[in-house]
Amino acid sequence: MARILAGTLLLLVSLESIQTLRICSFNVRSFGEAKRENSKAMDIIVKIINRCDIMLLMEIKDSRNIICPTLMKMLNGKSRRGRRDYNYVVSSRLGRNAYKEQYAFLYRESAVSVKKSYHYHDTQKGDEDVFSREPFVVWFYSPQTAITDFVIIPLHTTPETSVREINELFDVYMDVKRRWKPENFVFMGDFNAGCSYVPKKSWKQIRLRMDPKFVWLISDNMDTTVKGSTNCAYDRIVIQGQQINSSIIPNSANIFDFQKAYKITEEEALEISDHFPVEFTLRSGGSPTNLVRSVAPKKRGRKKSQRS
Ligand SMILES: *[C@@H]1O[C@H](CO)[C@@H](O)[C@H](O)[C@H]1NC(C)=O
């Protein structure tokens, strides 16, 4: 009896150490001072981030650089004894004129770390300055998942030029490939890839869509908008790489409807954003077969020592 109990405990401990990785993307509309001072909105934003191991935030409008430090305080204040849980990397303030936005990645330090990052140089001959906010590319190291590293390429397009910007992601892909030679890619963000901004006939101009090695996890019929009156798949996740493709937990690619999850009204939800986050989850490195193998020899070993 005691032995069975010990075995069960061992199994439970092993199961607990299996770590999946949830990766999310969220356009927090016009995320600046006013929203920072809205404590109700901030509490929900922190809850939304806390569900994710990596969270890409977009539309940060923060000339004083206080949004990310405030989020860190709120996120890490929740963890035991103020132990640091989340860390972040943030892009430069991006934009062609006085209007600027930033991309930020908030990530759980116990799960992943940043290997490298850079701002894509949007200076290709004949194709200069396509992006309103050039991707801030980040290479993550993720020792506990089935794939140990992947690159995330974020994008927040300007609606009117979204077809051209999404198409240009192919060039970013080639640039990252040349630079770092990684195997696994994630493209995500508010691509404005739906409704009138990307009509059906425009998809054939988008290489990321026409080339079958890119897998679109959020499909055209999904609705990433908060307003009940709109139905558009603006926010997307696209992956490339055989390993990452086979490491995704089936049906984990989804929209997170925080209005429903936290039982708030549409009006309250719109105070946070007009977008819902999108997300997917990667499998852990410890497959169920490995688990059984790692538990079984210990049992045999114990029996043996009892006999002798
Ligand atoms: C990605 O995985 C899905 C489901 O496992 C599979 O049907 C599809 O062919 C894969 N695509 C690529 C490009 O590897």
Question: Care to describe what's here?
Answer:
The model is unreliable at 288-308 (pLDDT under 50). The protein has a single domain (20-282), classed as Deoxyribonuclease I, Chain A (4-Layer Sandwich), CATH 3.60.10.10. The chain has helices at residues 2-16, 33-36, 39-50, 67-77, 162-180, 207-210, 242-246, 258-261, 266-272, 288-307, and strands spanning 21-31, 54-60, 86-90, 102-108, 113-119, 136-141, 149-154, 185-190, 214-216, 235-240, 254-255, 278-282. The strands form 2 sheets. It has a 6-stranded mixed beta sheet with strand order 3-4-2-1-12-11. A 6-stranded mixed beta sheet has the order 5-6-7-8-10-9. It is globular. Strand 6 (136-141) and strand 7 form a beta hairpin. It is an alpha+beta fold and 308 residues long. The two termini are 21 Å apart. Helices cover 33% and strands 23% of the residues. The chain has 10 helices and 12 strands. 2-acetamido-2-deoxy-beta-D-glucopyranose (NAG) is lined by residues 212-213, 215, 242, 245.
Order of helices and strands: HEHHEHEEEEEHEHEEHEHHEH
Strand order of the largest sheet: 3-4-2-1-12-11
Q: What fraction of residues sit in β-strands?
A: 15-25%
Assembly type: single chain
Distance between the termini: 21 Å
Helix content: 25-40%
CATH class: Alpha Beta
Ligand set: 2-acetamido-2-deoxy-beta-D-glucopyranose
In total, the number of strands is 12
- Count structural domains: 1
CATH architecture: 4-Layer Sandwich
Query: Unreliable runs, pLDDT <50, ≥5 residues?
Result: 288-308
Q: Give the overall shape, derived from the CA principal axes.
A: globular
Mean pLDDT: 90
Global structural class: alpha+beta
SS summary, helix count: 10
CATH homologous superfamily label:
Endonuclease/exonuclease/phosphatase
At CATH level 3, the topology is Deoxyribonuclease I, Chain A
